[in-house]
Amino acid sequence: MSIDFSTRAVHAGREDLADLGVHVPPIDLSTTYPAVDSSAEAERMDQFASGKQPEGSPIYQRLHNPTVVRCEKAVAELEHAEAAVAFASGMAATSACLLASAMGGKRHILAVRPVYGGTDLLLNTGLLGTEVTWVQPDEIAGALRPDTGLVVIETPANPTLGEVSIADVAKEAGDVPVMVDNTLATPVLQNPLDHGASVVVHSATKALGGYGDIVAGVVACGEEFAQKLRSVRIATGGILHPMAAYMLHRGLATLPIRVERMASTAADLAQRLSGDPRVAAVHYPGLNADRPEQMASGGTLVSFVPVGDHDEVVKKVELITPAVSLGSVDSLIQHPASLTHHVVSEDDRHAGGIDDKLLRLSVGLESADDLWADLDRALG
Ligand SMILES: *Cc1c(COP(=O)(O)O)cnc(C)c1O
């Protein structure tokens, strides 16, 4: 029997609760756990260090935490993955993927712009000992090297909302794993593993958490890569706090209804903006005729270039909050060239199609009419 996504969102990662005699996931805040039999624990230490999850005492919170494991199981199920590994933030998750990939000596990465500003910075500076080559999607096969360990894409991309065909990229990449940042689409609208990707990264700070009150990251992937990620996490310490894991898990239950409602409002606003003479350009996947068949709707963000002063629009909104981040229950607007993509050089921003005046709107759960009234006033 195939179980609907909305049903999974409510029940995933809660399989052990009935046996525990509870109805909501317990929050285990222990930093350490009794470890009585030292020689047996030594064996289990080795297993944790190699990324396995042995039964019994978690030993120490950086090695294992039951509250975190439950939310990992839930995300894995929603992303059609064997496993998921949670981190302290989206950037900690991406960092762990780069380190896990480099563990086998493959330090070269191919990446397609644009990507989130922090990801661009991390790749471009080679801070973690990796080397990046920026390519167009159809240049991937030609740019592969023997030491290429990962192909990195983001679709829809932050902040232009441009889409890249995951299946085409996977074909170009051949045996090299493709990592997709799926933060903007969420597993409600897109499951990259179904299209040939090997690794899915989420900033769970965004729609997965959903309420703007946690910072978290999750990687969904096969068990083999997950073991490398757990090893990296133990060594580097970017663990998710169990309280945030609980809140992330709780947010997943409402993920489908939130994302569907936000996406339908976003489609409505994109339509109104695209017919408005005060707007020079609107970026919304749902408005593009020629799209890859991989995202179920146009998504929850709309980016646009106002004809007038973009700063004035941000200053004049009253209902929408001028702030970075996205995917929350309330709408947010920001100017990528000043904020999320400020760390990317002007030339690189332009190469990625990021207009100097582009504004990115993350649509929340307010009514479309109220949001439009706010934008209409702000556009002057
Ligand atoms: C926010 C974001 C990130 C970084 O996530 P943090 O949780 O802020 O570390 C990565 N990718 C995308 C697409 C994002 O929007």
UniProtKB/TrEMBL annotation:
Keywords: Pyridoxal phosphate. The keyword S-adenosyl-L-methionine does not apply. Residues 40-60 are annotated as: Disordered. It comes from the Bacteria. Pfam families: Cys_Met_Meta_PP. The keyword Repressor does not apply. InterPro entries: Cys/Met-Metab_PyrdxlP-dep_enz, PyrdxlP-dep_Trfase, PyrdxlP-dep_Trfase_major, PyrdxlP-dep_Trfase_small. Its cofactor is pyridoxal 5'-phosphate. Belongs to the trans-sulfuration enzymes family. This is Trans-sulfuration enzyme family protein. It comes from Salininema proteolyticum.
